[in-house]
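Batch manifest line 333
LIGAND: coproporphyrinogen I
JOB: complex structure
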Amino acid sequence: MSLIKKCIIDKDVSYKPIWLMRQAGRYLPEFRDIRKKNKNFINLCLNTKLVPEITLQPIKRFDLDAAIIFSDILMIPYGLGQSVTFNKGFGPELGIIDKSNLSNINEKNFKKKLDPIYNSMKIISENEILKNKDFIGFVGAPWTLLVYIINKVSPKKNLKKNFFTEQSLIDELLKLLVKYIKIHILNQIKSGATIIQVFDSWAGLLEEKDLEKYIYEPTKEIIDFIRTLNVPSICFPRNIKNYKKFVNIVNPDVISIDYNVNPKKILEEIDIPVQGGLNPVKLLEDKATLKQEAKKYLKVFKNHPYIFNLGHGVLPETNPNMVEYLIKFIKDN
Ligand code: 1CP
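JOB STATUS: finished
ARTIFACT:
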């Protein structure tokens, strides 16, 4: 059994496995080299030669316990026929979507558009380098995908003012998203994913009264579905105010915490395995500070199943030597 599965399934506390959100990406010079020559990000995510290479770049460099498929949560809107472009320094921009588009959507077209991702995953999962390691597939949670689909650009701190005005479109999209997120998960598992992480990056934008409809209910449906496939699930509801309530209702196998969460409080409140927490800016500071911060998490979760990770993705300006230092420190402790 992989070390992450020992932690999740056997509740083994003796070893703290590690992987990092955005472990493949712009802080690695070998990724930047590829990215420079491949300006279209969606096409890059559909490139069956480069995706395996990029996914395995951090595994070749560092002693990580899992690879995560190099892809994006916005491949689902793309698969549903919405245009998605990434502009330098601005982030993603999505095209128009209205009710007339929705009737054209079908599973065959969706699968056809995203097939290169599944082909890359099959190639990656067969690589010897992943022996005894996990291969993480992922999706955006329904709410976070809805945010990008309706808002068209990153909400950064605020949703556009008229976000909820097209209520019937939103209701229809939410149902559709749950269906296609499940399809995307199933296809990733069939292609070799051994764990599924659900990113709800914008969970923190909602008020308490809206959580049931947009987060708890649809995410629980997805987690229940993953459980029927016998694959562990990790939820990352970033900035959600009440992690305990989220865990009680949604019931994932692992809860991933952001860097604003007090790890001691989580330990008191939550029984299931925990992942993450370390602020990615600590990787920009000196080694002594980084070590001290990492130690804090190891100490709090000493007797609790814990997967070491960050409280959000590795920042582009991170020095790969600091990532190496962190991983080595966790492995030696
Ligand atoms: O080179 C570039 O400019 C592209 C930067 C980039 C990368 C490396 C984007 C654009 N996506 C990715 C890959 C990616 N995205 C991965 C790869 C696997 C790994 O972790 O190594 C993953 C898991 C994601 C998931 C993702 N995409 C999330 C959830 C996690 C999070 O960061 O909160 C979100 C919100 C996105 C949307 C997205 N894609 C890219 C950007 C810059 C963004 C965020 C835009 C915003 O600020 O709203």
